[in-house]
Design brief:
This protein is α/β, with parallel strands linked by helices. The protein has 2 domains: 174 residues, 3-Layer(aba) Sandwich (Rossmann fold); 51 residues, no CATH class. It has a 7-stranded mixed sheet with strand order 3-2-1-4-5-7-6. Strand 4, helix 3 and strand 5 form a beta-alpha-beta unit. The N terminus is likely disordered.
Amino acid sequence: MSADGRSYEERLPPFRHSPPNSLVHKLKLGARLLADFQVRTVYQRLRRMLPALEGTILDVGCGESPYQHLVTGPEAHYIGIDIHDAAKFGYHNRDAVRFDGRTISAPDGSIDHVLCTEVLEHVPDAGHLVGEMHRVLKKGGTGIITVPWSARYHYIPFDYYRFTPAALEPMFRDFSSVTIEPRGTDLTVIASKIVVAYLRGILPGRSPSSWARVLVAVVCTPIVAGAVALGHLSLAFGWGSTDDPLGYVVHVKK
């Protein structure tokens, strides 16, 4: 049920994003990096950047801390925080520090780096939470924030915004340095949408009957394979327009 009283059916809820701490979860991550371009484009950035960070790293809206394993610096200390009722999003991270979603319980200037991935669209007052990230960061501290742009309505009804660069720039204006990068291109988006439509058609409970799922799988699998290949090529060679990407990465420095 949405805030205005209308009912929505989330036909393809987001898959749980778990850390690769078991063989099954490692296989799931491999599959997502192959065909889930939203996750892949976030993971690619973090895999390059997180191992180099030292000091305290605060993961705001950490979920199940799927990127904690990338924090490998000898002097790095990871802290994940999430809302008290994170279970409504399907997350049950016992190690996460709970907060109210607005005020981060850390002293001013006490954090070296902030991480916040695919969270701000679920925060009613996203600007306030960005201000909290700025407050807790040390002078010279950095942040990596990702937001979706071309993404389906998800975690209904707790999905409020899609941010353009023109909206992100003033949100982060208190930082001394802000860089906004697109994640993928419109061709990556097309590939991602085809994969989503395919999964919606073949997963149990999402289509009218088992024979229909088999038919979709047989007929559409070659098309989906081509779409996945197109998505990877668009990322590798920059094919397509960045005016309609999957989302954005915001790099900030206080």
